[in-house]
Amino acid sequence: MDIAFAFDEHYADHAQVAMESVLDSQAPRDDLTFWLLTTAQVVQDRADHLHRQLDGRAKLHLLAADDGYRALPRSASPDISYITPGMHLRLLLPDLVASHTQRLLYLDCDLMVAGDLSPLWELPLGDAPLAAVRDANITVFADQGGVPGATPADDDAPYFNSGVLLMNVPAWRQQRVTEQCLTYLIEQESVLRLPDQDALNLVVARRWVHLDGKWNNMKSWFLEAPDAVPQDVRIMHFAGRNKPWNEGFYPGFRQARWRALAARVAACAPPAQAVAVAG
User: Fold this and answer.
1) Average pLDDT, the chain
2) Of 37-46, 188-197, 223-232, 255-264, where does mean pLDDT reach its minimum?
3) Contacts from 80-83 at CB under 8 Å and sequence distance 24+?
4) Is the pLDDT of residue 279 over 50?
5) What are 235's strand-pairing partners?
6) Minimal CA–CA distance to 68: which of 204, 197, 186?
7) For an engineered disulfide with 109, which of 2, 15, 55, 206 has Cβ 3.0 to 4.6 Å away?
8) At 183, which CATH number?
9) How many domains does the chain have?
10) pLDDT given for residue 15 in this prediction
11) Residues forming beta bridges with residue 33, ordered by sequence position
12) What does the CA dihedral 74, 78, 84, 89 come to, rounded to 10 degrees?
């Protein structure tokens, strides 16, 4: 099982907690591998901590991106000002992993895995470049002003959230998904809305596999389950500004589990980092 995260320095702490949630929710397996695409500085600063965290639990591949991604166009909307340029890194993953890699399960850093991922990992994809969950707030292209660059013929096309993507690596490469997404960002620079997510939706429109909502539940903190994870949620995605590491996040078992996982990650930090965390 190849699981990927892509993030910059702003989300490095949270990526390790999300990784810990994966480890906490899976039965031990010999093939669990993490692919992390991040900055050279994060690789330098975090490699030891990451190896200590995963020691004997999973394999690790660290991929260092150059700073070119920071120059990619971003949206001017204040509604997503909290999203860093690292959002674009996910678009690069399938072209950077080992050539023999057949699929990647990409996960955002602002989520917690709460159950076995094996059924998702084993899902047939056919020729589709990816599988995803329909977005909880934008269900079709025409919603919320429409996808910039889309035609009226696409108004009713289903729209997915890019926080959880089961990537069919050979199909992605063959269909030049990365190249087309980067072209979209440049061509639509002046009107971008949700840059990487809109790009992916337009490039693979009507050619993606629809996943059950339990694999990317974007409303999980509204569920009435104060002391247990609802049975139909395998991945809780804290989409939006309010994150479990922020003050004012909804109290309850989701926040408590996040804090417990973060404490576990901190406990395996190298001595110098552990002192810094404690201080």
Assistant:
1) 90
2) 223-232
3) 80/194, 82/241
4) no
5) 113
6) 186
7) 15
8) 3.90.550.10
9) 1
10) 98
11) 2, 59
12) -40
Of the chain, the end-to-end C-alpha distance in Å amounts to 36
User: What's the pLDDT tens digit per position in 77-95?
Assistant: 656 555 677 788 999 999 9
The tokens for 261 are 């996982």
Q: Is residue 234 a contact partner of residue 215, using CB atoms and an 8 Å limit?
A: yes
The predicted-structure confidence for 227-237, as pLDDT tens digits, reads as follows 555 567 899 99
CB 198 within 8 A of CB 147: yes
- Which residues, 6 or more positions from 268, have their beta carbon under 8 angstroms from its beta carbon? 49, 52, 53
What the block records as the tokens of 5 is: 């995260």
Which residue bears the tokens 């199909």?
171
What pLDDT score was predicted for residue 215?
Answer: 96
Question: Residue 205 pLDDT more than 70?
Answer: yes
Please choose, from the candidates 101, 95, 88, 65, the residue with its C-alpha nearest in 3D space to the C-alpha of residue 174.
95
Q: Any alpha helices (H) in the chain, and if so which ranges?
A: 12-25, 40-54, 93-96, 118-121, 169-174, 177-187, 195-203, 253-267, 271-278
For the segment 94-112, the average pLDDT, to the nearest whole number, is 96
DSSP state of 73: -
Burial of 3-29, coded b for 16+ CB within 10 Å and e otherwise, reads bbbbbbeebbbbbbbbbbbbbebbeee
Q: Which residue segment(s) compose the domain that 126 sits in?
A: 2-278
How many angstroms separate the CA atoms of 195 and 193, rounded?
6
CA distance 250 to 122: 33
The CA-based diameter of the chain, rounded to the nearest angstrom, is 58
Separate counts of helices (H) and strands (E) for the chain: 9, 9
Eight-state DSSP code of residue 245: T
Residue 85's nearest CA partner among 203, 185, 187 is 185
Q: Look-up: residue for tokens 């994966």?
A: 22
